[in-house]
Amino acid sequence: MTTQNGPQFFGYGSLVNTRTHAYPYARPAEVSGWRRAWRHTGLRDVAFLTAVPCPDTTISGLVAAVPDGDWMALDEREAAYRRHAAKTSYGDAAIYAIDHDHQPPSQQHPILLSYLDVVVQGYFQVFGVQGVSDFFATTDGWDAPILNDRAAPRYPRHQMLSPTETRLVDENLSAVGAKWT
Known about the structure:
This protein is of the alpha/beta class and 181 residues long.
């Protein structure tokens, strides 16, 4: 999880959106052997993204430096997760994933649209339209209910979307057959 330039982490969800953090030296990267999935635990009321081992999948995201090599603030932000070692296109990094005591999303634990909006906005800004398509293709759990909270966002780091970004989210959700609540 450390390189010659210090420790780094791989972000594959909201951490791809650089408007949600100020971690230094964030740059596009890939990690093989992992896939994203929507899950929930008893730690949160809503579903969130996690990385799950998958030997045949490569996902895109951002690698960034851990400020001053101090994991405390990042671990606090990612409190529902544990750090795991991963090999990225920029060398060793930590990837955050929840423990195995997780469940698929449900009506009681839906995906927040305001959270998904932040993730897709980040992928669009960094990887373009193809990056957004790849995000949806390398993420499991789209049968989960999507809670439309855009009018009153519940996600604490929500962002305003452009009309193009909103359309990208909505069109990709439609393409995967997502159900809105």
